[in-house]
Amino acid sequence: MTTLYLTRHGETVDNANKIMQGQVQGELNEVGIRQAETLRDELAEVHFDAIVTSDLKRAIDTARIVAEPHGLEVTTTPLLRERDWGSFTGRYIPDLEHAVWPDDVEPLEVLKERAGRFLQFIRETYPDQQVLAVGHGIINKAVQAVLYGKQMNEVVRMTNAEVRILSI
Predict the structure, then answer these.
(1) What does the radius of gyration of the chain's CA atoms come to, in whole angstroms?
(2) How far apart are alpha carbons 28 and 8 in whole angstroms?
(3) What confidence tier does 72 reach under pLDDT thresholds 50, 70, 90?
């Protein structure tokens, strides 16, 4: 059985400003860098066989900070990218509360299928190992929903730099 330490990237400039990031690269702010450094220190004594991250900059930067004491290269994968919010991307989140969803938002079925492929990738590539994976709020919910056979709304959203330990 593989143990997956699933985490969310540190806070970004857009998170702090309540901007829908989706699949844009994003930039950690000072809070996010400190969150990643705290996570690094908390996980410094945990043995990891691999560190995998979304291929978006905010996740890569978080993963590289956390990887420092482990001496491991960071492997990127588009399977762990955030949900594509289509034309909602770049918009102020409170303004979207009653907005009609555009057709270009990545459907939940597609997101969950991608989350399932991520889990399969981890199982096949890192059998019986401990892996740290840095993702994003919604894709991390999808990974957990698929793993536990739950609906997305049954999984509590992760905060920035939060870790959940999953057995897969």
Answers:
(1) 15
(2) 12
(3) very high
